Model the fold of this input.
Amino acid sequence: MPRPPSSDPVRAGAGGRPAVAGVILPSPAASLAVPAKGPFRLPVGSVGIGFPALALALTLALILGWPGQAPGAMVTGVSHLPTREGDVVQIELDAPAEPQIRFSPLEACWQVDLIGVERSRLATLTGPFQGPVLGIRQAQIHDDPPIQRVSVYTVTGARVKVARRGSLCTLLIRGAEGGGDQRRPAARGLRPQPLMHPGGVSGGEVIIDVRGAPPLPLITQLAAGAGIDLRFRDPLPDRVTLDVRRPTSLEALQEVAAGLDMVLTNESDGWWLTARRNPLLDLPAARLAATPAGHSGRSVAEAIRRLDGGDRFLARLGAGLPPQVAVRPSPEPAPGQNSRTYVQHLLESHGIHLASR
Done:
């Protein structure tokens, strides 16, 4: 049984950071004016740091090491539990860590960054989610220092309360003020529909009829029905209109992916949903048999070029790979990785994200 988060109020410490956790963070979609371009920053008094501050923190961590973080810390569990007060998301580590929390307008989710925490083999939680939490994703976004990111997708207007106790980080997510899901109004002539007809199945058939609906809860329901753990390489569109009839949840999920101009793939490290234009699809999805010969000492560009399909990938990436990054040394692939995941993590560790939306 997850322990409830503390209800103690927050007191700001040095630099505006909270001395203790336990603060309600309103979703920016409900109460903040989010700029279309430029760095996003939380208002003064919120828990989290803007992107420039994160870059500064990474620089200090490289030089001094991350304060208060035991070497080799790892995420040992991510859980989700609906309660009467709201949805509880718990992140467990094997050593204490200070989470950095912010809202990402690009991916429309709350992001919990754990600096100095190693990657784990945990699968993304796909549900079932009834709201206010709509989905949870975990990924490593930086290698040196390592950073684990837990992304929590919520309904618009959700409020987040954060509490830390030792090596446990707890998020309590409540719906919008007034108890409703303050979704954006649908386009004229369209009205919100149930994600699926009752149960999603009629006569052995999965029936989906949505108009101007957010796709993530639909996808998590289908993934749960198909019995798969699904991860996302690219952000989803805000709203979709779909009419799908398929005999199984998996086939329905494949058709939904096609309707989003995305591809559902079963790769060596699990199921992925990827935008069709993402150049990572040019690389093989099969597990790397071994570290490519002569990898040691290779630059980023050379390491990618030596993979099957690497030349084609680099040609499509073009100016997306800055010259100063191309010549940096590259780490060896982790055991069992495939080329897509290896290159994705390699580029993300240098701040290059291939999301095509």
